């Protein structure tokens, strides 16, 4: 009984406590207890898959249990797991096939029969699993053809439950790699279903038709007549399923008829949910296959009027975008727009008709933008129409705002008009403040025609307006404020935290090292182009007046609000006169807050005032050095703290400081040369490019390292012993960049020697990568012509996959394409494809891809394929297994930083592990963790130790360990609970192994 | 998977409800009312599957009692349709000719049976003897 309860309601926090008990029960002698235990484990798997990872082999045991019930219970777990990752369980296919064969063959005890069909639900479950396993995999599919055939044959008794099995069979046959005989049988089955007089069967048949129709459109042709009959079926559910089929087979030729049918159904239907989905489908079809403009507009009109306000907001938005962006053909655009304008005018002519708000909004927008295209229509008429609309009571104020916008737009290209005057007069005294504001705006705009023309250019709706979200045009103001000694802005939560920690009186050292690595990425996104700002600042003055929906101008009100809530006015700031000033302060502070690291800014406050002044100056100069001012240079060298803070963010600084640095650093600067060119360009781009930006410096830095080597140690290169070179490289980065603060992963000499030995195997890494820690080169796949090798390089900022393609033939291979497929858990930083234009005979080509983990999992698979021009075997598939550890890097920090970060993180995971006698002391245990998991040991205090690491790019995870009486208590904290779980699992594994 | 399992009579009174996904209490009554309205409005010659919002209803009528099951896309409608019958057969066996009153007064038993058959929205047991085994043990304990 308790086990049943466990499998029904259970909090995830309690799993570690109960898990061992349940594991014990798996060995119980009574089958029912074993079954319940498996069910409880299934529940655990559902709520926290990470925590039951280590008992996967027990699931396998359950699958082979001699009792059917236990086996059946374990199928649920497998169904879930295979859904997640089908490639991991291919080896079980045979067992599933065997089980199904036995079930179908009637080998089960008689009481499992239901209406003389053996365990039908079990069969269905198995078929489902097989379907998942065999998807797109010819080899696995082959294994199951026989058994599928068998089940099809056995399930010929006329009973509902056999139909259910047949249906599942058909589904499976169509999902796995196709085999013509089976497909034929399945098609026959579907035919039987569809033609059946029983209504439920008909439904089932239609449903399977929808599933298979895309693979086999001919099937639809066979059942044409039935489908048409079903369209007029009295049961709306059948009708809807039929429409679903039609939706799948729509093409350019039949679209008009199908859409007509759908609209008919829509008009009859009352249920809101059905309307929403169906109207979405109609709109999609209309956009995709519209034969001509007139039809398209009419259809969309119908959709809008039928769909009403329940419509998905994307539909009107897409429609408007289509109108605004138009096609390639200018003439066609105009036709479409003119047609739209005319049709809306005729619709509006009819008095006393009710239209949904969304439709009205669309109408008013189109009229406002394109009414002048219909040259023979007097704008006065349009204005009267809109005016009369405004007076109607059913129009909401939201829609009224749209209409007003349209009126304003029309007004901008017509000379004076009586209707507008009337309108202004009428609404200037309106009770609705919104309307009143719009009316006043219109009035003022009319007085200044030039401004109006500028503001509302004709047909500019799709010209992108650049809004500078980071408000960087206020940088100058911030700099000024800061140079006068104002404290930099800190975000609200940070200030609170500081207060908190100060109250607790933790001891701070004044110059705590910053954990730049964790914050750097956010810092970089924060800073955007200072040049793309012109628009925002120019119009911000006007925007309060216009407040237009379409003109994306910066709204003053919005910013003041932001400032009020979060803002923090510097002490010495002169009181704000102009509206721009508080704005400047607020956003400047925002900016500064983003860039400065918390501990650094804290130390600012502690330090003396003069110190602070200098800091500010530096902050300002580091901030604006990218803009071309060289003022910062003289200051830069003196203050290490500041430059450290901006390590990654402003590489340019470093090139400039190089003047006073040693000649070695000059060489560094020279390699930074190209970077200088790329960075400003990159800055213009927005976030999308931040990855490349982040990576470039680091790539460069490894290059620099190479260059320096060549520079400094020509002698050692002359007598090129490999070991010599390596030892040089490990020494040089330390000395070279002591001032430059470039973060380089410093590989330990031993690791290097190891790797040097390893890379003697087939293909070898290029020099600059060889110095980073990396895995062995392993073979991925091979064919007669091509062999693929892979080497993982654990770079500091990403996992670099170096793929070697080696041509085994005696002739050159042309255009070899390497493509990584999209994987759920991983993100490839550049394009996932790579093309080798030619691989010479017997030679090796290399390509590199940087990978991040997107969604946390302990182990994942990155599939890919390589293809080359050849008659045979055009495509070679492979998969790369990546584990969480590939993405874990040590994170250096001080004890104080650790304390602060610890408080700010909330996702806790705790676990006690038994320590083996060989690793009884804390320090040995920690060093195991350090070596195996790449954790960084922050500090060891008594019997407690703290460690830190980060998941690439910058998700921190902190670990607190304590030993007592042979146990090691682990306590993880990280912003993301899956990361803690995953790391805990790895820790357990490592500790067990050692 | 199965989202909920309902037994409702023709008057719209809910006799049994079991949810496998969290639904707010006050939303449940609304949902039940709408579901039964949908089922009652259908005639005998219409099919027993209804698309309702983003899930499907499978229903079966036994005299004045409706059994309605809400499922999502991945479930096989016909299999669930038969599951309902299986469930009723089990009830029939346990109560020997089950009636609405049996269900009203032995709600705990019915729940135990249902929990044996469906767990976390999955069909876990369909063998009649095995479903009833724990219940018989309980009855024995109660007697002695």
Please give a structural write-up.
The complex is a heterodimer of chains A (994) and B (144). By secondary structure, chain A is α+β, with helices and mostly antiparallel strands. Helices cover 57% and strands 12% of the residues of chain A. Among the domains of chain A are: 1-82, Alpha Horseshoe (Leucine-rich Repeat Variant); 773-884, Immunoglobulin-like (Sandwich); 888-993, TATA-Binding Protein. In chain A, the strands form 4 sheets. In chain A, strands 12, 13, 14, 15, 16 and 17 form a 6-stranded antiparallel sheet that branches. A 5-stranded antiparallel sheet of chain A has the order 3-4-5-9-7, with no helix packed on it. In chain A, strands 8-6-10-11 form a 4-stranded antiparallel sheet, with no helix packed on it. In chain A, helix 6 runs antiparallel to helix 7 (120-134) and helix 38 (690-712) crosses helix 40. The model of chain A is unreliable at 460-466, 505-509, 512-609 and 622-761 (pLDDT under 50). Chain B is globular, with a radius of gyration of 15 Å. Chain B has 144 residues and is of the alpha+beta class. Chain A binds chain B through residues 1, 4, 7-8, 32, 35, 39, 42-43, 46, 69, 72-73, 76, 111-112, 114, 119-122, 124-125, 160-161, 163-164, 167-168, 199-200, 202-204, 207, 234-235, 237-238, 240, 271, 273-274, and chain B through 45-54, 76-79, 81-83, 85-86, 115, 119-120, 122-130, 133-134. Chain B: Keywords: Membrane, Protein transport, Transport. Chain B: Adaptor protein complex 4 (AP-4) is a heterotetramer composed of two large adaptins (epsilon-type subunit AP4E1 and beta-type subunit AP4B1), a medium adaptin (mu-type subunit AP4M1) and a small adaptin (sigma-type AP4S1).
């Amino acid at each position: 009984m308790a086990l049943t309860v466990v499998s029904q309601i259970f909090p995830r926090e309690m799993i570690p406590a109960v898990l061992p008990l349940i594991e014990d029960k798996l060995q119980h002698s009574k089958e029912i207890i074993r079954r319940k235990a498996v069910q409880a484990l299934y529940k655990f798997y559902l709520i926290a898959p990470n925590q039951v990872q280590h008992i996967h082999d027990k699931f396998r045991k359950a699958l082979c249990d001699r009792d059917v019930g236990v086996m059946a219970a374990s199928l649920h777990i497998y169904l879930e797991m295979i859904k997640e990752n089908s490639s991991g369980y291919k080896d079980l296919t045979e067992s599933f096939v065997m089980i199904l064969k036995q079930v179908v063959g009637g080998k089960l005890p008689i009481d499992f029969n239901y209406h003389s069909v053996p365990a039908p639900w079990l069969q269905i479950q198995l078929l489902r699993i097989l379907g998942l396993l065999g998807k797109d995999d010819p080899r696995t599919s082959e294994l199951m053809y026989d058994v599928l055939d068998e089940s099809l044959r056995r399930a010929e008794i006329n009973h509902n439950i056999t139909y259910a099995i047949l249906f599942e069979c058909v589904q499976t046959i169509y999902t796995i790699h196709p085999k013509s005989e089976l497909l034929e049988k399945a098609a026959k089955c579907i035919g039987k279903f569809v033609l059946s007089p029983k209504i439920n069967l008909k439904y089932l048949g239609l449903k399977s038709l929808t599933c298979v129709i895309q693979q086999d459109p001919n099937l639809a042709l066979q059942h044409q007549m039935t489908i048409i009959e079903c369209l007029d079926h009295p049961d709306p559910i059948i009708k809807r399923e039929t429409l679903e089929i039609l939706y799948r087979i729509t093409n350019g030729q039949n679209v008009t008829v199908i859409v007509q049918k759908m609209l008919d159904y829509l008009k009859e239907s009352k249920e809101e949910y059905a309307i929403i989905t169906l109207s979405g489908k109609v709109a999609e079809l209309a956009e995709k296959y519209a034969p001509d403009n007139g039809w398209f507009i009419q259809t969309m009109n119908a959709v809008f009027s039928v769909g009403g306000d329940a419509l998905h907001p994307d539909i009107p938005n897409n429609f408007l975008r289509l109108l605004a962006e138009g096609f390639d053909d200018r003439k066609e655009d105009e036709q479409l727009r003119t047609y739209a304008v005319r049709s809306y005018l005729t619709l509006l002519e009819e008095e006393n008709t009710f239209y949904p708000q969304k439709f009205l909004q669309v109408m008013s927008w189109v009229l406002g933008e394109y009414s002048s295209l219909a040259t023979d229509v007097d704008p006065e008429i349009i204005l009267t129409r809109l005016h009369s609309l405004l007076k109607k009571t059913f129009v909401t104020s939201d829609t009224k705002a749209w209409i007003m916008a349209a009126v304003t737009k029309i007004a901008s290209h017509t000379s004076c008009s009586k209707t507008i005057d009337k309108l202004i007069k009428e609404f200037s005294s309106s009770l609705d403040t919104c309307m009143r504001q719009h009316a006043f705006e219109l009035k003022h705009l009319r007085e200044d025609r030039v401004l109006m023309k500028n503001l509302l250019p004709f047909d500019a709706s799709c010209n992108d307006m650049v809004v500078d979200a980071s408000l960087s045009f206020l940088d100058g103001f911030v700099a000024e404020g800061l140079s006068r000694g104002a404290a930099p802005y800190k975000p609200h939560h940070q200030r609170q935290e500081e207060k908190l920690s100060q109250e607790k009186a933790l001891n701070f050292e004044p110059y705590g090292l910053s954990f730049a690595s964790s914050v750097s990425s956010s810092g970089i996104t924060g800073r955007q182009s200072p040049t793309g700002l012109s628009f925002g600042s120019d119009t911000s003055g006007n925007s309060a007046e216009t407040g237009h929906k379409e003109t994306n101008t910066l709204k003053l009100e919005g910013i003041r609000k932001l400032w009020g809530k979060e803002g923090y006015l510097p002490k010495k700031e002169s009181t704000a006169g102009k509206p721009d000033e508080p704005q400047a302060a607020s956003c400047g502070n925002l900016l500064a807050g983003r860039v400065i690291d918390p501990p650094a800014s804290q130390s600012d406050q502690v330090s003396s005032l003069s110190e602070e002044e200098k800091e500010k100056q530096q902050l300002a100069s580091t901030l604006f050095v990218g803009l071309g001012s060289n003022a910062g240079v003289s200051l830069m060298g003196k203050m290490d703290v500041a430059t450290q803070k901006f390590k990654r963010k402003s590489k340019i600084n470093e090139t400039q400081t190089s003047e006073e640095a040693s000649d070695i650093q000059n060489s560094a600067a020279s390699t930074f040369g190209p970077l200088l060119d790329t960075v400003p360009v990159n800055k213009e781009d927005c976030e999308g490019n931040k990855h490349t930006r982040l990576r470039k410096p680091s790539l460069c830095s490894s290059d620099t390292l190479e260059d320096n080597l060549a520079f400094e140690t020509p002698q050692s290169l002359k007598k090129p012993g490999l070991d010599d070179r390596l030892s040089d490289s490990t020494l040089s980065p330390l000395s070279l960049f002591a001032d430059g603060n470039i973060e380089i992963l410093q590989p330990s000499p031993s690791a290097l020697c190891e790797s040097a030995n390893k890379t003697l195997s087939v293909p070898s890494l290029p020099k600059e990568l060889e110095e980073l820690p990396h895995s062995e080169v392993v073979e991925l796949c091979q064919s007669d012509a091509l062999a693929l090798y892979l080497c993982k390089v654990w770079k500091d900022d990403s996992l670099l996959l170096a793929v070697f393609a080696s041509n085994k033939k005696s002739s050159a291979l042309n255009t070899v394409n390497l493509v990584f497929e999209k994987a759920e858990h991983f993100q490839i930083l550049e394009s996932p494809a790579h093309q080798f234009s030619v691989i010479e005979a017997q030679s090796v080509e290399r390509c590199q891809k940087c990978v991040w983990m997107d969604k946390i999992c302990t182990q994942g698979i990155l599939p890919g394929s390589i293809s080359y021009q050849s008659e045979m075997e055009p495509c070679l598939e492979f998969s790369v297994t990546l584990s969480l550890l590939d993405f874990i890097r040590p994170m250096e920090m001080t004890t104080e930083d650790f304390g602060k970060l610890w408080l700010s993180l909330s996702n806790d995971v705790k676990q006690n592990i038994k320590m083996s006698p060989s690793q009884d002391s804390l320090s040995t245990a920690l060093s195991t963790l350090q070596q195996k998991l790449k954790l960084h040991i922050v500090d060891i205090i008594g019997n407690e130790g703290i460690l830190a690491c980060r998941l690439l790019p910058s998700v921190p995870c902190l670990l607190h360990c304590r030993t007592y009486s042979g146990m090691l208590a682990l306590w993880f904290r990280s912003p993301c609970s899956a990361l803690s779980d995953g790391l805990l699992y790895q820790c357990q594994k490592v500790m067990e192994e050692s | 998977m199965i989202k909920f399992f309902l037994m409702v009579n023709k008057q719209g009174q809910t006799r049994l409800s079991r949810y496998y996904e969290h639904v707010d209490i006050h939303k449940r009554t609304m949902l039940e009312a709408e579901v039964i309205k949908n089922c009652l409005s259908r005639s005998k010659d219409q099919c027993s599957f209804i698309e309702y919002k983003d899930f499907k209803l499978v229903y079966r009528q036994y005299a004045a009692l409706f059994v309605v099951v809400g499922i999502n896309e991945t479930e096989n409608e016909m299999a669930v349709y038969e599951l309902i019958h299986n469930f009723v057969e089990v009830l029939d066996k346990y109560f020997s000719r089950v009636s609405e009153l049996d269900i009203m007064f032995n709600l705990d038993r019915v729940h135990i049976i249902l929990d044996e058959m469906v767990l976390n929205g999955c069909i876990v047991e369909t063998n009649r003897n095995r479903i009833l085994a724990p219940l018989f043990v309980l009855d024995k304990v109660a007697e002695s």
